[in-house]
Protein 1
Amino acid sequence: MPEFSIDARLLGNSLPVADLTLSAVLLVRDANYPWLILVPRRAGLADIIDLASADRTELMAEIATASEALRATVRCDKLNVAALGNMVRQLHVHVVARTSDDAAWPRPVWGVVSPKEYPPGAAEALAAEIRKRLV
Amino acid sequence: MPEFSIDARLLGNSLPVADLTLSAVLLVRDANYPWLILVPRRAGLADIIDLASADRTELMAEIATASEALRATVRCDKLNVAALGNMVRQLHVHVVARTSDDAAWPRPVWGVVSPKEYPPGAAEALAAEIRKRLV
């Protein structure tokens, strides 16, 4: 069995929020949108259907937990939930809080506008607030 | 309770494939990518977390079923699974078979290239093949 580790490209533009039963939760460093990524801690997987059935059910529960935590923390008109993986093949799920006046609305968030830096300390503060609601 | 019906914009560019326990399955009329949409037959919902917990688990099982059916029917290097809903607010989940030489790769499929017409009868034939693997 290969050992699990989070892809460097996911780690490189995010900060850790919490570890759920199955998934590591990351906050993407892009102030345009409150944006979480769930990475199931299973090595070598690319697609949701690569997960065992019980893990898929757990992943859905964790998507709901992350969604509720985001919605309780930030303004959110619509949640975007997506497992794409065309760029970073490791299985990961985006959970993004969208508002009808955000930088990419109504388009998806990927590749539309350049990431915007959070003010110093703001990403860490947001991650801490979300963490309280996750664990 | 409002009655369930599928949004006219989803119906307008798709054809019906099958009815699963929870979701209606549609095939999008875009020959660029084999592209299914699952629409849970529950009225008035926008986000996955609007579903009851048991329905969320069923939705995940149906995402897996649709994914397996797609992968068994067409070439597929990567599955893209997404619930966005920024344009059509009714809860629906995209399940798209991507290949590394498709029209939008490696970008997401939404809004990148114009839909391409299937040759006459081809969409119906593909829907029939997928249906056999779904039911």
Note: The CA atoms of residues 22 and 59 of chain A lie 7 Å apart.
Protein 2
Amino acid sequence: MTTPNPPGRREQRKAALRQTVRDAAWQLVVDRGYEAVTVDDISSAAGTSAATFYRHFSGKEEVLTRRWLSPERLAELAPHIDKTQGLAVAVASLFKAYATMAAGYQVNVVTRLKVIHRDIGLEIAMARGRYEDMDTLAQLFGEISGQSPGSLAMRLAASLTVNARIVAMSRWAELDGQLPLDALLDEVAQTLAPTLDNCETAHDRFMDSDAGVIPV
Amino acid sequence: MTTPNPPGRREQRKAALRQTVRDAAWQLVVDRGYEAVTVDDISSAAGTSAATFYRHFSGKEEVLTRRWLSPERLAELAPHIDKTQGLAVAVASLFKAYATMAAGYQVNVVTRLKVIHRDIGLEIAMARGRYEDMDTLAQLFGEISGQSPGSLAMRLAASLTVNARIVAMSRWAELDGQLPLDALLDEVAQTLAPTLDNCETAHDRFMDSDAGVIPV
């Protein structure tokens, strides 16, 4: 008699495979350059088949451009986000957890950022992911503050947080990771804090109202 | 005896022609859709030739995606920017001047934003323009605050300002321009003000140091 794996176990195996593929892809891209690496190369290096690869990713671009707050990454970060003390504390705790996580990646984030910057296709994919990250954060901020995620205040807070992180990361990459990422991100979170406070307490006809999103 | 036009006059004629081409292009795109409009259509509607068109623009994409702080637009806005009272006041005065200018465009900005949002090529062109806008603003902020334009603090201030404007504009477009743009942008400028103050007074090893730019 066979017992089906519980969904949790299956999800874990899936996440592990995806991470193996990502690590293999980044290692190859660092060694050979983005253009020279094929999906077959990545699949072989990850010990799997191209068919399996395509069950998990649309192509090599997607492997290399996971957005910041993708569902799987957010699931890892979520337990570390302090949601009890408002947006500014939530962002500081999120940045801290992210810095810890980023320190553990096999191919380091500085290298990744430089590779992405050299390829317009990758940059575009990253830019698209930012809109999704903003939606994810606006949801989180809405949950914390009790405001609508679609309000101007929540979307402003989300956009500024996403972009503040990007500025910090590119600064850090420029300096070849010489500064401690956690301290750099914390500095940025503190700089942003009073504006996040303003967003949290916003209640006027401009900041408070709700509508669908045009991500211009 | 012929006297050459002073450079100021020539520049004015050039700017006027470019604006005529832009207005014609936007009117055609609104009437027929982006895909259906050709450079020949635009040139004819503007009363000029395709050859002249290509002396001023690389293609129809460029006509439709002037960045926020392009040199010609900045030249118009600059006299209205208050540089004497720090970054927050500078941004508020810049937003105010921009709102006044945007109210005067022949094809209104709401329509433009919706057209741009429907086309990925235009969105990408706009996204690239944002990096240039950030550099422009970092220069301005550096001038105002006496900090290096390449410092983390100035680049953070620039990125947040560029993105705060985008959030306000997309909000405004969603509501079909029903809210007064000047009041909406002012609200966003006020929300951002304390963080701009923080950037202005930043003096530590993270915010203060300088290096080349990787716009990730």
Note: Chain B touches chain A through 49 residues (CB under 8 Å).
